Model the fold of this input.
Amino acid sequence: MLKKDLPIIKLRWYAWALAVVLLLAGGITFAVLGGFNLGVDFESGLSQRIQIAPVGLEVTYSGTNDAVLSISGSALALEVRGNEGVSSTLFSSQDYATAQDLATALNAVKDVKATVVDGSLATSNLLSGYGFPATLSSDPTQLNFQSTGTTAIEDVRAALNDLGNVRVQTVGADSSQTFQIRLGIKEGATQASMEAEVKAALTSSFGEGNVVILQSDYIGPKFSATLVSSSIMAIIAAMVLILIYVWVRFRFAYAVSSLIALLHDILMMLTAITLFRFEFSGTTVAALLTIIGYSLNNTIVIFDRVRENVMLSPNAKLGDDIDHSVTQSMSRTIMSAVTTLIAILPLAVFASGDIQLFAVEMGFGILFGTYSSNLLAPAMLYWISGAQQKRKEKKSA
Done:
């Protein structure tokens, strides 16, 4: 515990000035960048993650059994099911280093024929997208291999330019040749028709089979609108319940101060999401609600200390009690923030997709919540309590 109380009330103007400046910057950023980077959850249409990767092999099957080809990591597995049982064969990159080696091994399997398109491609770079596991037939099944290509994001945008409302983003390093495509909803369009349009446009520019679809999501306009309204209602309901809870447990001044601090946290989270162009999706709503709970818990601990210190020293100034309460809670606040950040840091660094997004947004939320619960909420409590005291004195005068 610190030996000297932190001057929280003395710094209240500086704390709120910084918060207001950051929020204004967020508003300007929101206007300049044209709003949020909406995910497919909130923006009706098609969202696809694709990878530009050349075809190395084409595999066909002429037998009467069921032959299924699957990709696990950098290994290719072939499973043949028939009346005599199941036969499984694994072709690992350690044993078959190139597409040519893989083709030779596949051709040794009865009724399987592998045609080499580019035999120099490394088996360790095999890609698995939509369509895998694939049931083999007389129609060729294409195997794609990741390679360090030269396709730029401008090339993908140019390929899809004629489709209208299309946005393209690079996913990961440029060398991975992976892109996120979002196509706005069109009147009378279906998921199948929009996927077909995208596939045709990409095939025309990059060649037949050289585009691997890693993920494809479609959200209709009705579902999107429902999700938006439900998310807004969830956040409003959480704020109202928090206001009632703190009001009942403490006093009105405490409740309003907590609510204002939570509004700051939400707005700052939205500022960070806008500035760094994070995808605004259902994961973002989950992060916002989680941060509301985290920040409120920290604020409640501090306010509980304030109420206790006010009861123990009724003649002391409220500002001194607030300074002392925040200082008493500081060690707990630091430990809570640090341990939570340590827990989510591996997810933010090593995870991917929605889990990584949630962890990164939580990291920002913890910083904003710690700032508001220790500086902004106590300052608001000081101002509101002072205003109530002055009103009470005027009535009694």
In short: The chain is about 55% helix and 20% strand. The chain has two domains: 12-42+222-392, 45-218. The chain has a mean pLDDT of 85.
